[in-house]
Specification:
heterodimer; A: about 325 residues; alpha+beta; Rossmann fold; OB fold (Dihydrolipoamide Acetyltransferase, E2P); six-stranded mixed β-sheet; about 30% strand; B: about 280 residues; mainly alpha; MetI-like fold; 13 helices
Chain lengths: ~325, ~280
């Protein structure tokens, strides 16, 4: 079981308020991702749930129990840190067994669970090595192993993949998702990478300056961002935001259109501009188009086969049903 | 591109390293050699190197004239005692500065170090007077306290840099894994801090063992350690180089052996934190 409820939670460090009053419910078994730019309070929020920081006011309930007086160790949560935080003087086996040893389990049970976790995480051959002798990805797996042996009510991940190289990151992303599918345990995952958020989450919580900007499934956030911040943050490359007369035509202060919802043509279209940088990914090509009279630069996604050169004049047509409208406060107009 | 090291260059470097090494070691080597000579050979001109009548006479005389073991015992108690006492104070101090720093932590560290910049003789007079008042003059307790205070800044600094290297996240991980304060200290902190604590102790023993200014000024007979033992052979009825050398060799032998066996640990301790 692992339902986590935050009620009017605030956190201040001295005079500085990092988390203004905040309410959030994370359902049992849900994979929730906290995402936001650095300094948005997402890590602090995770540490509050973990009990590594005390809330200034408000209440966090884990499975209905108020947690204020429960120390981190007794909350039944396991955490995976960005730096892995393995015990350098212990072997992999001892690292993974440490929480079990602390819980006072007998040796045979410890052994059984460590072996099981090692098998799941492909660490069986490394059990007698020390963390210093492992690669980054292996260390991360040990950290996850240490978390799963405890069979916690919920897993907390604090940017666990940001120290890994790109290829490994994609692999570990899949492994963590698979782990979630298998264990069905509540997971809270903090990241600043919106791709990780989109690909892994059941529910994304977008944070800015301690405020929740929007909560929803990845596709809800993609399809109906509640404001300009979420619109700009979710989706890669970013949504094009256009102000001025073009927006006024749609009765909005700002309109947004994603690069993938604009079609391009050499001959005709509603908008036109000059191709600047083209990014060829093979499957897709992204054109950064200038001198459109709409915004400084409009990004357009095209098929990988389409090719325009730097300086070519092209025409663009947005899909009308994919235009997002925002009012003067930046909120979505339904 | 890797720098190519030719054999020539390598042997040249080796030669230079040996010359510098021997140059640094020469005074100790010469002292040890001299301690096996007669007084006449010791001041012979030109000096004799290895071909002389090796004799243990000096050691016998030194042992007869003064009670080596009593000085040795004093040295052990003073060096060991000041180290243990210092660690009892320095570990919690460095601990709190590394893990719960305040706004003033850096200032305090710097201020502590600045006390080492004061010439020792500047405070000799007040300390001497205090010692007379407290009856600590020529006592092992008194010397232990002074040497502890003397080396405390270095101990705190060394331990502080060591503790700083222990990432806070590891301690938090232990907390998440169910370790209470006791388990956290016992199973996670101490094992990671032990190399640092060991090299700090080692360095401190060496510093205390070799300290001459205070040990000579604050002792007369009862609490005198090996530094005083050496000094007693340098005066007053003219210099007896061979006997002085024998006394010196006996005085430095224990610490030399200790240093020899622990040099790896010591070097690691002193350079720790400098290289990631």
């Amino acid at each position: 079981m692992g339902q986590i409820v935050l009620e009017q939670v605030t956190k201040s460090f001295g005079e500085v308020t990092v988390i203004p009053p905040l309410d959030l419910t994370i359902e049992d078994g849900e994979f929730t991702v906290f995402v936001g730019p650095s300094g948005c309070g997402k890590s602090t929020l995770l540490r509050l749930i973990a009990g590594l920081e005390d809330v200034t006011s408000g209440e966090i309930r884990i499975d209905g129990r108020p947690s204020a007086s429960i120390p981190p160790a007794k909350r039944g949560l396991a955490m995976v840190f960005q730096s892995y935080a393995l015990y350098p003087h212990m072997t992999v086996r001892k690292n993974i067994a440490f929480p079990l040893r602390m819980a006072g389990l007998d040796k045979t049970e410890q052994d059984r669970r460590v072996k099981q976790a090692a098998a799941v995480l492909n660490l069986t051959d490394y059990l007698d090595r020390r963390p210093g002798q492992l690669s980054g990805g292996q260390r991360q797996r040990v950290a996850i192993g240490r978390a799963i042996v405890r069979e916690p009510a919920a897993f907390l991940f604090d940017e666990p993949l940001s120290n890994l190289d790109a290829a490994l990151r994609v692999g570990m992303r899949l492994e963590i998702s698979e782990l979630h599918n298998r264990l069905k345990t509540t997971m809270i995952y903090v990241t600043h990478d919106q791709v990780e958020a989109m690909t892994m989450a059941d529910k994304i919580v977008v944070l800015r300056a301690g405020h929740i900007e929007q909560v929803g499934s990845p596709l809800e956030l993609y399809r109906a961002p509640r404001n300009l911040f979420v619109a700009g943050f979710i989706g890669s490359p970013r949504m094009n935001l256009i102000e001025g007369p073009e927006a006024a035509k749609h009765d909005a202060t700002t309109i947004g259109i994603r690069p993938e919802h604009i079609s391009i043509s050499a001959e005709e279209g509603r908008w036109s501009g000059v191709v600047g940088v083209s990014e060829h990914l093979g499957s897709d090509t992204f054109f950064h188009v200038h001198q459109t009279g709409l915004a400084e630069s409009i990004t357009v996604r095209a098929d990988g086969e389409v090719s325009f050169k730097h300086g070519d004049r092209i025409h663009m047509t947005p899909r009308d049903d994919m235009i997002h409208r925002f009012d003067d406060k930046g909120s979505r107009i339904a | 591109m890797a720098r190519s090291v030719t054999l020539q260059r390598k042997s040249f470097n080796t030669l230079i390293a040996w010359i510098i090494g021997l140059l640094l070691f020469f005074p100790i080597l010469w002292t040890i050699l001299t301690s096996f000579k007669t007084e006449a050979q010791a001041i012979a001109d030109p000096p004799v190197w290895f071909f002389f009548d090796w004799t243990l006479e000096n050691y016998r005389v030194v042992q007869e004239r003064s009670n080596y073991s009593r000085f040795l015992w004093n040295s052990i108690i003073i060096a060991g005692g000041s180290t243990i006492l210092g660690m009892i104070i320095a570990i919690p101090a460095a601990w709190s500065m590394a893990f719960v720093p305040s706004n003033r932590t850096k200032d305090i560290l710097l201020w502590m170090l600045s006390t080492k910049m004061l010439p020792a003789v500047g405070v000799l007079y007040p300390i001497y007077l205090i010692f007379i008042q407290l009856g600590l003059l020529d006592t092992r307790v008194g010397l232990t306290i002074v040497l502890m205070l003397l080396n405390l800044p270095i101990m705190v600094w060394m331990l502080y840099t060591y503790f700083k290297e222990i990432p806070g996240e590891i301690l938090e991980a232990a907390r998440m894994d169910g370790a209470g304060l006791k388990e956290e200290i016992l199973y996670v902190l101490t094992p990671m801090a032990i190399p640092g604590i060991a090299s700090t102790m080692l360095l401190n023993i060496i510093l205390a063992w070799n300290e001459a200014f205070w040990t000579l000024n604050l002792t007369a007979a009862r609490a005198a350690p090996l530094t005083a033992f050496i000094a007693s052979y340098s005066s007053p009825e003219g210099l007896f180089y061979a006997k002085l050398s024998a006394a010196s060799t006996m005085a430095i032998a224990p610490i030399l052996i200790l240093g020899w066996f622990s040099q790896k640990q010591l070097v690691r301790g002193l350079t720790f934190g400098a290289v990631k």
